[in-house]
């Protein structure tokens, strides 16, 4: 026997003696039985603090009993003997019964090292092969839990073999399934077969999750767990053909297991993979065909439910079923479900398809003709939304452009947007232009783009204020509105949006020039735009024009500003009172044939860039007065144009000719064209007329893209947004801080008496300016913070005034475990963005008699 063995024995014995006294114990007596006399010499030198070492022989049994019971009844004793203690003639047999027996064999040493009761010796012996490895033994000890039952030892062994952080049945089963649901390929089952007992693993699974089958496999276990979970959201009568997979006891454990797996930040990916495989095996698609949608709209276990809901809405739209409110509610309901992220682009494309249909229904009698000012006003207040819906549809569509369902939606969208909305709106607008605006390009109550500087900037600069002007090339009105909404909801500042009547032709060179300070604006004989007789194309020329009017001014491209650091920006703009910033992300993509297909994605990027640019002005440059506007809007349709959408060039003297306009010195009426007198817009020394095709028609010509165009007189081209952003600082008078809506539990009772229960929640405010949406995760926890229920999500983004329309009803299911009615359990409401618990509500759980059986 080595020194190490003796030291190990001393450590083990010391641990035994240091254990707390049990009921009735006055001290510790341990009989060390060494039948093979291996430690006769070592015991002579053995010392354990506060323990008397005594040798028991054949001749001193009575004396030993006298010492223990009369002479010294209070000291701790280690009685070393080579004898069999269980013989009838042993004087100490009764003392042995209430004392502890120690053996210095391998299993005994393990019992001592692990601090396991000798009564569990058989269990340690059974798994001796497992413990015959230093690393496994170290991990086993590392769990640091009380090993007082067979179950606690077996769970710990499985925890080590499955490499879980804690010895927990749920974690072990998930880890096993995560590796593979093919038994022969599962490394953890293989480990259990080598160092454990696989039957014990299946026994734990049966007890916890009600999985009882003659032929067991990981795949049928996964099916059992998912179908059992599904039975909580679909009545069992509808899934009777899957009855054999539904647990007869501890059903709630199956739901909570699957729910936790689905909500795990990374493990959910493997769950999704399995769910897609298994739903084919159990023919979930055939099942769904027999189930009313109302029955499965909350189901969240298999991805096919989302497919079925998407198909239902798409089919309803294609057959002109006009329950658009129901479709919108369904899509919003699914946002809080697990597979929404998988199908998010499809859902979003579907949502905007619904909105396009809804708009179409609102104007089922047609877009009304009217005076130009009324049509302009209607576009600014309502019609522009259709352009946003169309754009948003394609932003989603482009993420899944090979999806066959989306291709069918695309056909619907194009039919309504291009063939009806754009055609009818701009045909009616062209009639209004022809009758009212050809000679006088102005509208009552609407500011002209060419008066921007005079109306908005001049007085501020003259008063010594610092002004920033951001001009985003081709940012049309609907984009400006969305940017304004974002600035109002996500910054402390306030943003007001108004509309300008843009110049014609709606091109960059004229639009940009019209936004500068000037006395005279005109075209030269070659169609170039002059500002007070000076060339105005390019940032360098525009800066010269600005400085000629305001000495402390500067013009710069936004990319230059982004490239500077904070100190560099402050130095560059130091002392500048008038700053023009030029942004061109939208036009840069749209104006090239190779990239015009990415126009709508460029819009999304542009809004992010403009938002960031405004934050730089606010934070780095302390800017408070910011104007954001555009030189013109644009027309864009995704489908290839028909020949009927194009017309031949007219035989007139042309100064300039593009797809959407002609500049000419000739003055005449041409069929299909709007001849607009430019005198109200520019000095017009050369007596130029702008000819624009009616509606959205393009001139036939060689060269760049035809789907993205501007230059004409359509509403999408000439309604120019003007945003006025006022920065405000925290605490400044009149400033309202940005806050998320609150989500509160409305139930007054704090007692749970059933493992399945409903709770109601309330979104305390409607979402609006400075009050933004909040996404929360809600679940029950025990005193240690362990999750004991399923987890439910609320997306609190409702904009309704009526409180009853901002309520949510959720169903929760508790794990099938014993609950102590004297302990406090908590309902947790956690913000998913910040991961911060925003509310914790104490509950008492009293389920009465917990039965494994359902009646």
Given as residue ranges, the uncertain stretches (5+ residues, pLDDT < 50) are 850-855
Mean pLDDT: 93
Share of residues in strands: 15-25%
| Main beta sheet | 7 strands, mixed
What general form does the structure show? elongated
Within the largest sheet, what's the order of strands?
Answer: 5-7-22-13-6-12-11
Alpha carbon gap, first and last residue: 62 Å
Number of extended strands: 32
Binned, the helix content reads: 40-55%
Quaternary structure type: single chain
InterPro entries: PglZ (IPR014060)
Pfam families: PglZ
Protein name: BREX-1 system phosphatase PglZ type A
Can you characterise this structure?
With 855 residues, the chain is α/β, with parallel strands linked by helices. It is built from 30 helices and 32 strands. A seven-stranded mixed sheet has the order 5-7-22-13-6-12-11, sandwiched between helices. A five-stranded mixed sheet has the order 25-32-31-28-29, with no helix packed on it. Helix 17 (304-318) runs parallel beside helix 19. It is elongated, with a radius of gyration of 40 Å. 37% of the residues are buried. Pfam families: PglZ. It comes from Rossellomorea oryzaecorticis. InterPro entries: PglZ (IPR014060). This is BREX-1 system phosphatase PglZ type A.
How are the SSEs ordered, and which strands pair?
Blueprint lengths: L2 H16 L10 E5 L17 E6 L4 H11 L4 E6 L11 H6 L1 E4 L2 H9 L6 H6 L1 H4 L2 H9 L7 H12 L7 H11 L7 H9 L2 H12 L8 H13 L20 H13 L4 H14 L2 H6 L3 H4 L7 H15 L5 H11 L9 H19 L9 H26 L6 H33 L10 E2 L3 H11 L4 E6 L4 H14 L3 E8 L6 H7 L6 E3 L5 E3 L2 E2 L3 H11 L3 E5 H6 L2 H7 L5 E6 L1 H6 L8 H21 L5 E5 L5 E2 L9 E2 L6 E4 L4 E3 L8 E5 L11 E5 L4 E2 L8 E2 L5 H4 E8 L12 E2 L2 E3 L5 E2 L3 E8 L7 E2 L1 E8 L10 E5 L10 E7 L11 E7 L5 E9 L10
Parallel strand pairs: 1-3, 1-4, 2-3, 5-7, 6-12, 6-13, 11-12, 15-20, 23-27, 25-32
Antiparallel strand pairs: 7-22, 8-9, 9-10, 13-22, 14-21, 16-17, 17-19, 18-19, 24-26, 26-30, 28-29, 28-31, 31-32
Helix pairs in contact: 12-13, 17-18, 17-19, 18-19, 19-20, 19-21, 20-21, 23-29
InterPro entries: PglZ (IPR014060)
Protein name: BREX-1 system phosphatase PglZ type A
């Amino acid at each position: 026997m080595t020194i190490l063995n003796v030291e190990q024995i001393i450590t083990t014995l010391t641990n035994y003696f240091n254990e707390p006294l049990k009921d009735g114990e006055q001290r510790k007596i341990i009989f060390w039985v060494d039948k093979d006399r291996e430690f006769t010499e070592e015991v002579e030198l053995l010392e354990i603090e506060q323990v008397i070492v005594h040798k028991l022989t054949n001749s001193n049994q009575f004396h030993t009993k006298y010492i223990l019971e009369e002479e010294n009844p209070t000291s701790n004793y280690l009685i070393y003997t080579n004898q069999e203690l269980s013989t009838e003639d042993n004087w100490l047999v009764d003392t042995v019964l209430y004392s502890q027996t120690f053996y210095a064999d391998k299993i005994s040493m393990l019992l001592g090292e692990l601090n396991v009761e000798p009564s569990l010796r058989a269990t340690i012996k059974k798994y001796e092969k497992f413990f015959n490895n230093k690393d496994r033994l170290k991990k086993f000890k590392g769990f640091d839990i009380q090993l007082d039952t067979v179950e606690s030892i077996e769970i710990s062994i499985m925890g080590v073999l499955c490499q879980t952080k804690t010895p927990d049945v749920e974690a072990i089963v998930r880890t096993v399934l995560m590796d593979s649901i093919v038994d022969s390929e599962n490394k953890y089952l293989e480990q259990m077969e080598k160092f454990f007992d696989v039957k014990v693993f299946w026994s734990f699974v049966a007890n916890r999750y009600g999985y009882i089958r003659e032929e067991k496999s990981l795949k049928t276990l996964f099916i059992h767990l998912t179908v059992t979970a599904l039975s909580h959201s679909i009545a069992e009568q509808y899934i009777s053909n899957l009855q054999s997979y539904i647990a007869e006891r501890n059903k709630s454990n199956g739901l909570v297991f699957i729910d936790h797996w689905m909500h795990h930040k990374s493990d959910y990916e493997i769950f999704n993979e399995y769910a897609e495989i298994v739903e084919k095996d159990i023919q979930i698609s055939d099942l769904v065909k027999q189930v009313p949608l109302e029955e499965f709209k909350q189901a969240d276990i298999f991805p096919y439910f989302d497919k079925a809901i998407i198909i239902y809405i798409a089919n309803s739209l294609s057959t002109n079923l006009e329950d658009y409110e129901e479709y919108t509610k369904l899509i919003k309901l699914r946002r809080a479900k697990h597979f929404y992220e998988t199908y998010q682009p499809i859902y979003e494309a579907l949502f905007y398809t619904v909105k396009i249909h809804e708009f179409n229904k609102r104007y089922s009698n047609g877009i009304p003709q009217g005076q130009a000012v009324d049509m302009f006003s209607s576009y600014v207040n309502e019609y522009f939304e259709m352009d946003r819906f169309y754009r948003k549809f394609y932003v989603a569509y482009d993420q899944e452009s090979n999806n066959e369902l989306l291709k069918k939606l695309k056909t619907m969208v194009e039919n309504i947007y291009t063939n009806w909305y754009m055609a009818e709106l701009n045909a009616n607008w062209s009639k209004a232009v022809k009758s009212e605006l050809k000679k006088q390009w102005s509208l009552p109550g609407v500011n002209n783009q060419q008066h921007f500087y005079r109306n908005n900037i001049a007085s501020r600069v003259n008063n010594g204020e610092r002004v920033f002007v951001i001009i985003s090339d081709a940012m049309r009105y609907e984009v400006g509105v969305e940017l304004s909404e974002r600035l109002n909801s996500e910054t402390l500042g306030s943003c007001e949006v108004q509309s300008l009547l843009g110049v014609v032709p709606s091109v960059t060179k004229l639009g940009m020039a019209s936004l500068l300070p000037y006395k005279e604006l005109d075209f030269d004989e070659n169609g170039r735009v002059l500002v007070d007789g000076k060339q105005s194309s390019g940032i360098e020329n525009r800066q010269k024009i600005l400085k000629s009017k305001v000495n402390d001014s500067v013009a710069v491209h936004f990319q230059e500003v982004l490239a500077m650091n904070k100190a560099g920006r402050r130095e560059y703009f130091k002392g500048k009172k008038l700053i023009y910033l030029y942004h061109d992300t939208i036009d840069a993509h749209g104006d090239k044939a190779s990239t015009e297909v990415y126009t709508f994605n460029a819009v999304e990027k542009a809004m992010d860039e403009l938002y960031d640019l405004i934050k730089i002005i606010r934070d780095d440059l302390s800017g408070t007065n910011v104007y954001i506007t555009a030189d013109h809007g644009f027309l864009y349709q995704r489908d290839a144009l028909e020949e009927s959408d194009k017309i031949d060039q007219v035989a007139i003297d042309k100064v300039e000719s593009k797809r959407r306009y002609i500049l000419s010195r000739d003055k005449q009426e041409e069929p299909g064209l709007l001849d607009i007198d430019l005198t109200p817009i520019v000095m017009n020394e050369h007596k130029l007329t702008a000819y624009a095709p009616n509606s959205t028609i393009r001139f036939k010509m060689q060269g760049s893209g035809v789907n993205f165009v501007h230059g004409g007189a359509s509403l999408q081209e000439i309604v120019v947004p003007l945003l006025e952003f006022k920065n405000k600082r925290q605490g400044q008078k009149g400033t309202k801080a940005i806050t998320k809506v609150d989500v509160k539990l409305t139930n007054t009772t704090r007692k749970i008496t059933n493992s399945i229960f409903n709770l109601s929640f309330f979104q305390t405010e409607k979402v609006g300016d400075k009050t933004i949406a909040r996404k929360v995760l809600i679940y029950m926890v025990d005193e240690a913070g362990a999750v004991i229920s399923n987890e439910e999500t609320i997306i609190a983004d409702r904009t309704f005034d009526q409180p009853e329309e901002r309520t949510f009803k959720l169903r929760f299911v508790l794990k099938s475990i014993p609950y102590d009615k004297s302990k406090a359990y908590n309902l947790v409401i956690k913000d998913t963005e910040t991961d911060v618990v925003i509310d914790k509500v104490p509950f008492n759980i009293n389920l009465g008699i917990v039965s494994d059986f359902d009646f």
